[in-house]
Specification:
Blueprint lengths: L13 E3 L3 H10 L3 E5 L3 E6 L2 E6 L4 H4 L3 E5 L3 H10 L2 H5 L7 E3 L3 E7 L5 E7 L4
Parallel strand pairs: 1-4, 5-8
Antiparallel strand pairs: 2-3, 3-4, 6-7, 7-8
């Protein structure tokens, strides 16, 4: 009997939102697109990366949820967000880019619901 093909296409996380519409505006402001949305779910996309934003919020869940976005240059992303004044506009926290011991340069960004993002690029291994 032949084995079935178990090819995978994609994996997506479902991110919680405290204010669904405000969170959609936040992600669009930082450069993501939302090609599809209804009253409770939004498909959020940037380049080859995507996730689902959901109208669901439990504080303990949101505040313990973490996403990682691998980019070509974390410093460019940080400058982009700083120039947009994302922290002030959306009342979120953003950290400074730092070289990490796990061979990445990254910075932290909290979304309006408290989801922690680490946005970074790989550093050469020593």
């Amino acid at each position: 009997m032949p084995r079935p093909t178990l090819a995978t296409i994609e994996i997506k996380a479902f991110l919680p939102t405290q204010d669904f519409d405000f969170s959609k505006r936040f992600y669009e402001a930082i450069g993501f697109t939302i090609p599809w949305s209804d009253d409770t779910l939004a498909y959020v996309h940037h380049g080859h990366c995507s996730f689902l934003l959901q109208k669901f919020y439990v504080p303990e869940h949101a505040q313990n949820f973490q996403m990682h976005l691998l980019v070509e240059n974390a410093d460019d992303w940080w400058r982009h967000l700083d120039e947009l004044k994302i922290a002030d506009t959306f009342g979120v926290a953003i950290g400074e880019p730092e070289d990490q011991p796990w061979a990445m340069r990254d910075f932290t960004l909290f979304d309006p619901s408290g989801v922690l993002w680490r946005i970074g690029h790989n550093l050469p291994l020593r």
